[in-house]
Write a structure and sequence with these properties.
174 residues; alpha/beta; six-stranded mixed β-sheet; three-stranded antiparallel β-sheet; 22% helix; 37% strand; binds inosinic acid; binds magnesium ion
Length: 174
């Protein structure tokens, strides 16, 4: 089966939205520091762009979880493949994700992080697919709420492809 990608959110609009989110984070944490935890690999592009636009002090670390096989459907099971290296104790943690779909990944991660004595834990996701939610999660910062379509680009992949697209697009199967 082959597929093609149809543009959904322009690069310019993604960039603008990231500037707005960074501004909001600057305001919300004024006089403090934030610790961005980027969930690899999908959130890497977003986390870097976001970090560049935040003006309060930022530390950045990466973790990797697996919740998906190679297709477009979640298995529901979330495993930590790579944990962060820095301590989050007494830090203002912001988990940076590419997309919230069923909510399984973030609710598991948040529960896990809550035991690590961070000062606060918030969630920031570039995209949100609310129609697909199975587990309730509070997302503190959202880039765009999108319909139930499988999207790629700006870090998101289909079978490891298309992460490098500078915009967000929908995968359509031929
Ligand atoms: P959740 O646990 O179902 O919320 O899934 C979250 C993870 O599934 C995201 O971090 C993505 O890696 C992946 N995912 C969910 N929807 C999409 C999509 O439309 N395109 C690419 N990856 C997706
Ligand atoms: Mg992800």
């Amino acid at each position: 089966m082959s597929e093609h990608v149809v543009k959904m959110i322009e690069e310019e609009d993604v960039d603008k939205r990231i500037v707005e989110i960074a501004k909001k984070i600057d305001e919300d944490y004024k006089g403090e520091e934030v610790f961005l935890v980027c969930v690899l690999r999908g959130a890497a592009f977003f986390a870097c762009e976001l970090a560049k636009r935040i003006t309060i002090p930022v530390t950045l670390d990466f973790m990797q979880v697996s919740s998906y096989g190679s297709g477009t459907r979640s298995t529901g099971e979330v495993k930590i493949v790579k944990d962060i290296d820095l301590s989050m104790r007494d830090k203002n943690v912001i988990i940076v994700e590419d997309i919230v779909d069923t909510g399984n990944t973030l609710s598991t991660l948040k529960g896990f992080f809550n035991q690590r004595k961070a000062k606060s834990v918030k969630i920031c996701s570039l995209l949100d697919k609310p129609d697909r939610r199975e587990v309730n999660v509070d997302i503190d910062y959202v880039g765009f709420s999108i319909p139930d379509k499988f999207v790629v680009g700006y870090g998101l992949d289909y079978d490891q492809k298309y992460r490098n697209l500078p915009y967000v697009g929908v995968v359509e199967f031929d």
